[in-house]
Input
Amino acid sequence: MVTIYDKKFDTYLSEETILKRVKELSVAINKDYEGKRPLFIAILNGSFMFAADLFKQLSIEAELCFIKLASYDGMKSTGKVVTSIGLEEDIFGKDIIIVEDIVDTGRTLHNFLPKLQHQQPKSLKIATLLHKPEATEFPLELDYVGFEIPKKFVVGYGLDYDGLGRNLKEIYQLV
Ligand code: 5GP
Output
């Protein structure tokens, strides 16, 4: 159990469970992208830890860049999509894998994907550590999903509650 500001959170996914699953995703990506050189586009801030652990396990040639898109205000999605760190890489003709921490309503990626598609990548896939299927408002095809979780607020392993909790090694769920 951890307390962040006024809220209590229970352990939900242990470090061991997360890392085991991240490794499984890397194994699948190694297989699917053999002989290719994908560009991973990780969405800040929440995905930094997932992106690092996923990337470490790759045996294929791969590139990685980070962009910043969404603003998440407190405990519910604001719907605002803000690009504060842009995409400098040229993605034309490249195999792209978006790396997200969590897909909740799907709004963030729904708004962002057309911008990427416009630049004509060779392929475009999505890897997300967490997915809340019950929260879906904008359906997306998710190619690599770490864990499907209930529609409850989570923190840790890169995910925050008003700026705190990102450093936690485990993922915690609001009590
Ligand atoms: P969506 O646009 O799919 O509704 O939400 C995606 C973004 O909302 C994520 O990248 C994340 O920043 C934030 N988010 C959604 N659910 C949670 C949650 O349970 N905990 C935290 N910390 N952030 C969340």
About this structure: The two ends are 9 Å apart (CA to CA). The first helix runs from residue 15 to 32.
